[in-house]
Task: structure prediction
Amino acid sequence: MPKILLAEDEEVLRMLVVDTLEDEGYSIDEAADGEEAYNLIKQNSYDLILLDYMMPVYTGLELIEMIREDQNSTKIMMLSAKSQSSDQQKVLDAGANYFMSKPFSPIQLVERIEEILGESE
Result:
């Protein structure tokens, strides 16, 4: 069963995504801020990390850079309302593999995750 980390400071969105992905059979860890996410990343192995761009303590962008410094090859998808192409490029340049603009539907997210995890098989 693929293991996913969701780092999202907006509680309602985090609960919606966790419920949706658990219903699809994924194992989900969740973090409410960048520090909590980074601690989980150091302790666990994930098939995919979903990061919000704007979070307390460490932003999603800072987290990507920290993860990549550790030579971590885990797939990373940024979820963000900052959807201008310059923001997307910053995220990809930092080391994210994918970018998904908010708002998104749970179905869109599941389809994208299935695509991403299917690529690694």
Notes: The longest strand covers residues 75-80. Helices lie at 11-23, 34-43, 60-69, 85-94, 106-119. The first helix runs from residue 11 to 23.
